[in-house]
Design a protein that fits this description.
- The protein is α+β, with helices and mostly antiparallel strands and about 180 residues long.
- The protein has one domain (about 5-175): endopeptidase fold (from Nostoc punctiforme) (Alpha-Beta Complex).
- It has five helices and eight strands.
- A hairpin with a 3-residue loop joins strand 1 and strand 2.
- The protein is globular, with a radius of gyration of 17 Å.
Length: about 180
């Protein structure tokens, strides 16, 4: 039990900041793209990544640092913003000094294919959205992936098995071992 009589101003500020971040995460998890509002996205308080290669974990942690950065078509930096492949490109370059292709059409051809049941932290997940456009995200854990959804949105978490994304899923690729 918390003794509220000993809370000072700085601890109250920390609590308010955490609540603010949680509210932002909840608001950004309701992307217009995801059509089924009943399937809520689990926003982890503390992310403990599943057992995976050290490189995959480093790569994924870099992606998590970009959470809530803005989406910008053609973007590949935290200052400017990211599109989906730009997020993957930046995180691989920054965390692993790995120079991946810059487009989703080229990314889908690299690495090894992984079945949906065997996806691990750091694997790339690919989807085919409207007008046969390809979309990519980075798998985090427990069916959650991080991605840059579209103009007007921010880097966010989504569930690979949600009503929307499960219908759009096409493949997963492992780029780190």
């Amino acid at each position: 039990m918390i003794d509220y009589t000993i809370l000072n101003i700085s601890s109250i500020r920390i609590i308010i900041k955490k609540l603010f971040v949680l509210i932002i995460c909840i608001n950004t998890s309701s992307c217009c793209i995801q059509e089924n509002p009943r399937k809520k996205v689990y926003i982890p308080q503390k992310i403990v990544l599943q057992k995976s290669s050290e490189k995959n974990i480093i790569f994924t942690k870099e992606a998590l640092k970009q959470l809530n950065k803005k989406y910008v078509y053609g973007g590949s930096s935290p200052k400017k913003g990211f599109d989906c492949s730009g997020l993957v490109y930046y995180c691989a370059k920054k965390s692993l000094n790995l120079h991946l292709p810059r487009t989703t059409r080229k990314l889908i051809k690299i690495g090894n294919s992984v079945s949906k049941k065997k996806i691990r932290t750091g694997d790339l997940v690919f989807f085919k959205t409207k007008h046969n456009q390809l979309h990519v995200g980075i798998y985090v854990k427990d069916d959650i992936f991080i991605h840059a959804p579209r103009t007007g949105k921010q880097i966010k978490f989504d569930n690979i098995n949600s009503n929307y994304w499960s219908k759009k899923y096409i493949t997963s690729r492992r780029i780190c071992y």
